[in-house]
Amino acid sequence: MGLLFHGSLGKAALKEYRMAFRVLASLIAALLTMAATSLLADDTAGTRIVGDAALRAALSDRTFYGHYEGGINWIEYYAPDGRSAYWDGCTHDGAWWISNDFVCFRYRGDVSGRDYCWMLYRLGSQYEFLMPADVESNAVRAYTTDIRSGNRENLQLGTDDCVSVDLLPPSSNVQRP
């Protein structure tokens, strides 16, 4: 009988296979395009705030109310002098600063001693904080639900009322970029 595609029946089958391959290739291309578009949309859902002055203006002397992507609520006050008070059921004192268009934080009692650096995006009148994935953690997103001027919750700066933390002052000799 020879090759599968020999003769008129073979040519018809070859034509059907080619058509199926084109449809499959088009479908794969469409799916890849949708996935890439979705990833880009997730990363740029809002307008990224960059620059030292713009980031300081967005945060300084304000209380942010929000929640993490997983639903945990938080409140944080950002003092103009770089101190912060973060509340998630108890108050964690810390420090905030700007580094390479990221807003960075370090908290007393965090046994990892790491800096948490976030990109900040404006979403209408609210903000999204995005901490990109790194070797220590997956990407994390936090969203504000309200922003008020001043320390509206009177969160204590320089004190830590969390029972589960090491009560050492935030490291003042830490070199920051």
| CA distance, first residue to last residue | 75 Å
User: What fraction strand?
Assistant: 25-35%
The total number of structural domains is 2
Gyration radius (Cα, Å) is 26 Å
CATH architecture of the largest domain: Beta Barrel
Mean pLDDT across residues: 76
**CATH topology title of the largest domain:** Lipocalin
Q: How would you describe this structure to a colleague?
A:
17% of the residues are buried. The chain has helices spanning 7-43, 52-59; strands spanning 47-49, 62-68, 73-78, 83-87, 91-99, 102-107, 116-123, 126-131, 140-149. With 177 residues, the protein is α+β, with helices and mostly antiparallel strands. It is globular. The protein starts with 6 loop residues before the first helix and ends in a 28-residue tail after the last strand. It has 2 domains: 1-43; 47-149, Lipocalin. A hairpin with an 8-residue loop joins β8 (126-131) and β9. It has an 8-stranded antiparallel beta barrel.
Descriptors:
177 residues; alpha+beta; Lipocalin; 2 helices; disordered N terminus
What is the fold's blueprint, element by element?
Elements: H1 7-43, E1 47-49, H2 52-59, E2 62-68, E3 73-78, E4 83-87, E5 91-99, E6 102-107, E7 116-123, E8 126-131, E9 140-149
Antiparallel strand pairs: 1-7, 2-3, 2-9, 3-4, 4-5, 5-6, 6-7, 7-8, 8-9
Short description:
This protein has about 180 residues and is α+β, with helices and mostly antiparallel strands. It has 2 helices and 9 strands, in the order αβαββββββββ. It folds into 2 domains: about 1-45; about 45-150, Domain of unknown function DUF4822 (Lipocalin, Beta Barrel).
